[in-house]
Amino acid sequence: MKDTLVIIPARGGSKGIPRKNIKLLDGKPLIQYSIDFALEFASSEDICVTTDDDGIIDVVKNTGIDVPFKRPASLAADTSGSYEVIMHAVEFYEGIGKKYSKVLLLQPTSPFRKHEDFYRMAELYNKDTDMVVSVGKSHHNPYFSLFEENREGFLERSKKGSFNRRQDCPEVYFYNGSIYLMSINSLKKMPLHQFTRVKKYVMDDLYCLDIDSPLDWLICETIIKSGIL
Questions:
Q1: Lowest CB count within 10 Å: 62, 80, 177, 200, which one?
Q2: Alpha-carbon distance 55 to 106, whole Å?
Q3: Within a domain: residue 159?
Q4: Residue 141 domain-assigned?
Q5: What pLDDT score was predicted for residue 79?
Q6: Residue 41 belongs to domain spanning
Q7: Closest among 82, 110, 119 to 205, alpha carbons compared
Q8: C-alpha 78, offset from chain centre
């Protein structure tokens, strides 16, 4: 893990759920779920929480993780992209003489992960890979149940095909936002949405939950209290 920088991005602003990243989920700040996951396999000195918010910095420090810099306001707006935030962190560490070959990006809005997720993703990664990313199997298929509006205003299937049953359609996946294992060399050449050498790691539906709304929050709380994790 010494060659991997763990980045946990946590912006202070949140419209759907105010102060979401430090709101208590079953008695624990949401961001701590990602920090605790990272600490299972990484040293605290290799974990970077990048944030613009003093309140988040205080919460993170209470978990025993140092926050080496405060993210500039120019990288904390609604329009700020993940790529710029990642490269800002990478360049900061290179500036203090710490060079890594990989970035492990953990979104704090995905609280449910298993420790073996990282190890299995690491096994999929090699020097010819841009990224290994966690995905879920989509229950909506562009060959069958996803539609777009055409120029005449009528709906047509997003992807052409002659499938009569959903079960016959090719399997499709979505990035669940939980774990991204990326090559820093690749990041220096292009943003991650331009990566072409991408491998998937499929997670069960339960571990694909991404908190974006009060309903998502309620679902996660209910799951934790049920004890099924």
A1: 62
A2: 19
A3: no
A4: no
A5: 64
A6: 4-136+172-226
A7: 110
A8: 17
CATH of the domain at 12: 3.90.550.10
Q: Is 59 exposed, middle or buried (0-12, 13-18, 19+ CB in 10 A)?
A: buried
DSSP, residue by residue, 165-200? SGGGSPP-EEEEEEEEEEEHHHHHHS-GGG--SEEE
Q: What pLDDT is attached to residue 133?
A: 98
Strand 155-157 relative to strand 147-149, pairing: antiparallel
Calculate the alpha carbon distances from 180 to 1, 207, 215 in Å.
15, 14, 25
For 57-83, the pLDDT digits (tens) are 999 999 999 999 999 888 877 667 889
CA distances for 14 relative to 23, 65, 212, 219, angstroms = 11, 23, 9, 19
Confidence of residue 168 (pLDDT cuts 50, 70, 90): confident
Local confidence band at 11 (pLDDT 50, 70, 90 cut-offs): confident
